[in-house]
Amino acid sequence: MRPDLIKELHESPEYGHAGIEEMVRRLSKVFAIPRMRTKVQEILGNCLACH
């Protein structure tokens, strides 16, 4: 999965800047992403709105 897609979903109104656990939970319902938690942590760690 493209990192920019995870970022777009995270910033979307539907996801509302969900935290790591919530993002992984939601994404895993729709996508099978190798190293999902690591990728989500990296992307959310760079989210200025969340920090």
TrEMBL record:
List each copy of the Integrase zinc-binding domain by range: 1-50
Pfam families, per database record: Integrase_H2C2 (PF17921)
Q: Which domain of life is it from?
A: Eukaryota
Protein name per the record: Integrase zinc-binding domain-containing protein
What is the organism of origin for this protein? Cochliobolus heterostrophus (strain C5 / ATCC 48332 / race O) (Southern corn leaf blight fungus)
